[in-house]
Amino acid sequence: MLLGKGASPGITLGKALIVENETLNIEKKTIENTEIEKNKFLEAIKTSKEQLSKVRDKASKELGEEKAAIFEAHLMILEDPEMVDQTINKIENEKLNAAYAFQEIANQFIMIFEAMDNEYMKERAADIKDVSDRVLRNVLGETVVDLSMLEKSVILIANDLTPSDTATMDKEKVLGFLTNIGGKTSHTAIMARSLEIPAVVGLGDITDKVKNRDFIIFNGETGEVIISPNEEQIKKYKRLKESYENERKELEKCKGKKSVTLDGREVELVGNIGTPKDIEGLLKNDAEGVGLYRTEFIYMDRDSMPTEEEQFESYKKVLEGLRDKPVVIRTLDIGGDKKLPYLKIDEEMNPFLGYRAIRLCLDKKEIFKTQLRALLRASVYGNLKIMFPMISSLDELLAAKEILSETKKDLDTEGIAYAQNIEVGMMIEVPSAALISDLLAKHVDFFSIGTNDLIQYTTAVDRMNEKIHHLYSPFNPGVLRLIKMVIDNGHKENIWVGMCGEAAGDEKMIPILLGMGLDEFSMSASSILPARKIIRSLKVEDCKKISDKVLSMGSANEIESYLKNIL
Prior knowledge:
The protein contains 23 helices and 16 strands.
């Protein structure tokens, strides 16, 4: 048995599919038999065409012609005689191995397109990268996995899953995730909970221990993973799966009930989502709204910037789907681990502390205004609240609000309607923002505390670093004191304070946060009913005693031990 970090609850049994995300390392080799290399290259081109044709046909049928057009463009690249002929010439004349020869030619084309003044032509460089990666993997005999077109139900095995992987995968066919790296707040873990897909992360070397089609069982809560289990283990986990599903059915009794404590304090239990498809999970779990819509996924599943119209349709769908319940939509938070192939951002030493989120939007004002126009236009279809990410100073907040005001004036001039009562808020995820939250609260309608980043920035712990992950904790006394400060400062200015980080759904954190006075808890869909059950069993007066007690303690371990004993 292997033991990782349980990242998303659920018991899963199924066959493995290994997802390779590693960069290809292609060595330059001199070869004697150029005919073999040439045939290897032409066979890879043929295989790539067959794969892309299947993907295109399936995309056309299931996702529509617009999505299928991307793969049509990729097929055209494979049929470009210039690229094919130049590669063959390089193999024959320079006696080079097929993979190296093709990579050299593909890189030349990519550089040519990236250097063009025309924005559309620049974007074609990303297409060539995608296609060349597929061809190279076929030349090298590696498996090419397209997660949007899975034919059978599988458990995905990966070093890690990228935001693009999780945004494009066929969620109906994914039974679960197992990854080498990551913690409970890694992107993969967050997306797994959002999609209600069981997951275990931080397994170290699961990609080395598993082969494609191996039968696996795992527990997404305890982190237990068994490869090629025996009959007894399979029976045991089938019983556990049945028991888990019965527990979930028991939670159904909380549906339709208020998220209110025994002494009458009502809070909001809302959900975190990444795409309009996630609404289904929220409604199924009786969420009272959306506390965080991560809009970056609209920008990821593509090879060019989304238009205003595309964004408008996405936001409209979410607002209409929630039927007048509050929907907090976060503006673009690209950067760090979320990069766009068509948006050129220089490599940075510390991307999580770099050119990302509101910093990028204030610099690339047209991208920001396009999104704000789409949001404002969509606001007439529901209860929209706009939230700015990664604000670290009052100057940034005021600059973002000024651009929002300019955008409203533009729409007024054009005679385009938008809701007049949109609440505007900001995330508190940077310690400097928490420390001046008394000043910031005067300029917003709400705060939402993003604990995932607030913890790592406050404690100086990279949440993806396995060696120091034990230091990453929402129970760190410094983090808890900042949270209390933000809630108090928000209430002094009569604004509501929510939390959209993973700590909001942590069953041990809920009493502390209730005691501190948190108004809104935003979490993954699967956490909503368990959280409601806990809230309905507590009294605020007891929770205040708990929060006062933990705020006087000196370490995360001491706090967790105390909570374990009393809860």
